[in-house]
# Entry
Amino acid sequence: MKVTVCNISYITRWLCLKATLFSLLMSVLLTMGTLALTSCSKDEDSPVAETVVPPKDDNTGKTGGGDSDKEESNPGGETEPGGETEPGGETEPGVDPGEGESSRKAYITEEVRYPKYPLLKNLNFVYPSKGPLGEDVMLSGTITMRSNMLPHDKACGIILYNHYTVCRADECPSKGKLDMQNILYLTAPYRNFITVSADYYGFGQTEDKMQAYCIASVNARASIDALIAARQLLAAEGYTWDDELLNVGYSQGGQTAIGVLKLATEEYTDLRFRRTLAGGGPYDLEETYRQYLADGVVKLPSAVVSILMAYNEYFGLGIANEQLFKGTTLDHLQDWWLSKQYSSTSIDLKMGSRDITQFIAPPLLDLDSHVSRSMMEALARESLCKGWTPRKDEDIFLLHHNADDISPSENTQLLYDFLKAQGVERVEMQKADFITLGISEHISGAVAFLTMAGIWIRDNYPLY
# Structure
């Protein structure tokens, strides 16, 4: 693809940035009120969506265009489970295998449009992948594009969007949580790209399972397998796109985006991204947890509990909950976390304290205890700041608010230093005290991240 890079003056770029920030602020007010990572979310009913179930072609069984029956439903309603095959293997795109079949195939479940996001339409889909223990699973995700895009409208590229922290069952992409995707479309107007977003293990198709929260290797595989399946499904539906692939994520999504690079380097060697944009991620959870203990106070205590539960479960540590948690947190693990009925903000309010000593049990507060050593070893195994060899020609953009109140900015410094030591030449890091805008430093970093990502997309993707 021939790319035209816009050369604009500093003043013009500053005006463009100010206009984008204004646009983002309006978007934040409209679309980010429920952002789970920012203490701004509310437990509310799922947004009503218009669901269009694509009709099947009598001859091919593929979902296709034409007139579709429309009905009001909850977004991302139940989908039919698939059967069994290796993830990333051959699938028969666009075919719903139906109940009772044993083969595992990717298929589109529905087309969904949300009144909250009038610019967008979504194709929800189910696809084969692997779970946290290496087991065969069917996961879910969504393909997002402009609402007026038709198969013959060639897209300028695909963005693999890796989502941030969610706790409530209806906060995943296939159930209508599309805040960040929506803002990318708003900040890069008239760019006809497609985004692919995995729900991750523990949401959507597998919402009855404990989420693999902040386990980068598991969520990265879910994202890559979603991308592979989505490209097959889109091609079967007649969509085409330029060979431009971006890898984007903020917070947990930033961690997942770097995990995607690591996994692509090690296993999916044919998968190449033009650029990876990652912001505010916990790239080294061992060091992050040490800092939490040193500070004594955490801004998002529900996330700390989610991390410890996931690593204890999926790394087979076998630590009793009584040795991990205490007080009301210990008493409510099932109904506050595992039930997936509450957002992170609601759980934080129920916990009643951000003092880590009020919800973490003494054995886990003592770094010399067997419990702490076991947990820290598990966290260290998922560090993205050591233990892998990135491609030297990767193009990576990193951003972190210096005063990030949820994911310490040392994470990005450690990652940057590691990547440079490995010989990656095109690594850009933006670490600064971004304007707080009266909101948390973590979400202020998200606004800055999306602004810069939007400008880059505008400068490098052609108008349609």
In short: The first strand starts at residue 49 and ends at 52. DSSP finds 13 helices and eleven strands in the chain.
